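Trying the structure run again after the queue cleared.
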Amino acid sequence: MSFELDRIEELCRDRGWSRYRLAKEMNVSPNSIGNLFRRTSVPSVPTLRHICRALGITISQFYGTDGLTVTVTEQQKGFLEMFNRLSPGDKQKVEGYIEGLLAKDGESGL
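Done. Tokens:
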């Protein structure tokens, strides 16, 4: 399999997503995702952009696996700015809320 397909699998696994869930998040048929993996070729740039949008990451984050360089989207930057203005107690509440949302969806906590 290509690096890109392995990385898609890794990112889905990290989120507790199946290929079916990825297809739903992308608003494409599950067969489209299945075909992508059956061909085992490198996905096109537009396809990778679509996958990254569904995963909530940038192309830079997709390829940045070393953890040293992190690029955040404008939405993520806005959340971080708001989070940084919260009191320590409110930050704990936000973290608990997010963990609750993830647990509700059957995903593992932070």
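The CA atoms of residues 86 and 92 lie 10 Å apart. Worth checking whether this holds up in the mutant runs.
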